[in-house]
Amino acid sequence: MLKLLADSVFSFDVEWIPDPKSAEILHQSDPVNTPSLMAKKSFEVLWASARKEGDPEDFQPYLKTILCRIVSLAGILREKKPGGVVDLKLVSLPADPSEPSKCEEKSLLITFLKSVGRKKPQLVGFNSAQADVPIIVQRAIVNGLPGFGFSERPDKPWMGVDYFDARNSEYNVDLADALGQFRDRPSLHQAATLSGIPGKIDVSGNSVAQMWAEGKLDEIVAYNEFDAFTTHLLWARVAHFSGLLSSEAYRNEQDLVRTLLKDEISGGRVHLDKFLVEWDRLLVLTNQLESS
């Protein structure tokens, strides 16, 4: 299981859509860059090109990530301060979904790459080694960006931070692989809810493209934040099993997450109240309320 608990941990999730520009370049579809009915047509062009014989006409096949556009990144940044105090912070990109300039994929990637490249946190995701990290790398290259420190690699995995070798580096932690041992990989929803942690609430990843085309980026960001909290709570549970968090430290981690949720709700992110309600429901259902 996990072998390292770094002083800085970033439990993150990425949301993306079929990229209309990819459809324009590869399939000569009409140019479109903003949420609209035309964007849906561009999505369909990409899905149609990826369907296999016998697939339903409305089937939305998984697209290669390089053909997609990142629209949101969210995560929980865990930092161990001097004296051993642990601090949690919710990070959401775009910070303001109503400001077009902050919602551009290039802007999101620059902010993420610069921050991660500077802080060098231990990245934690779910299916992140096969999806989230590759799409960040591929779309950064498509956008002509430098690595901003994110792309730096040590000569050997044990000599430093390496985000490109999930099997050997402790800085690219994929919980799906950790739980499934690279074979029997559960879904995030399955692993979380069976553990008393909220999984998918109201929305699933298949809905993101439709939501974006309808101009509901704020709802995508909210959904992304749900998954970030889910991922961090699942990481804490796996870290506890791995011996990196004592039982007391694990309970404290859950308390820190609960406090962060309440603080964010008080600050205006009222949608996170759904997460708290679902968390309490699942703790009762899984007989874990007293130990949470």
Describe the protein in words.
The chain has 292 residues and is α/β, with parallel strands linked by helices. The protein has one domain (8-291): Ribonuclease H-like superfamily/Ribonuclease H (Nucleotidyltransferase, domain 5). It is built from eleven helices and five strands. It has helices at 20-27, 37-50, 100-103, 105-119, 128-142, 175-180, 188-193, 208-213, 217-241, 247-266, 273-285, and strands at residues 8-18, 68-80, 86-93, 122-125, 172-174. A five-stranded mixed sheet has the order 3-2-1-4-5, with helices on both faces. Strand 2 (68-80) and strand 3 (86-93) form a beta hairpin. Helix 9 (217-241) packs antiparallel against helix 10 (247-266). The protein starts with 7 loop residues before the first strand and ends in a 7-residue tail after the last helix. The model has no long low-confidence stretch (mean pLDDT 95).
